[in-house]
Design goal:
Blueprint (H helix, E strand, L loop, with lengths): L1 E5 L2 E15 L4 E12 L5 E12 L4 E7 L7 E2 L4 E10 L3 E12 L4 E5 L3 E4 L2 H4 L3
Length: about 130
Amino acid sequence: MYHSESNGYAIQVKTVFDLDQSNPLQRHYLFRYTITITNVAGTPAQLMARTWHIEDGTGDVRKVEGPGVIGEHPWFGRGESFKYSSFCPLPTLAGKMRGQFHMRAEDGTEFSIDTPSFRFVVPEALIDRY
């Protein structure tokens, strides 16, 4: 599990390789991740957007931006959490991802929460199966 805290918010990330949805012959490796965001001591705010920096095993980086997460814009009062799952396809056996969640408080103040950098890796035991 990966963990970080910034601006009074904690981020936890779990990753897993999805063998059933991957196709190594086409250089398609699918990784799933679950993120829990918790307002531990920050300003109550709404998650408005996200930015991801996704790096594959060759060092190529792509930037992905969008509104909310999984179509939602959760509100975080103190002590409140939001958990969601998503996925990341890569053309390599490993990669990593990091990003920010862009927040807006009731008074219109905007700030960002940094995620930890988290890795995607095909388990060594599965590599022989390819």
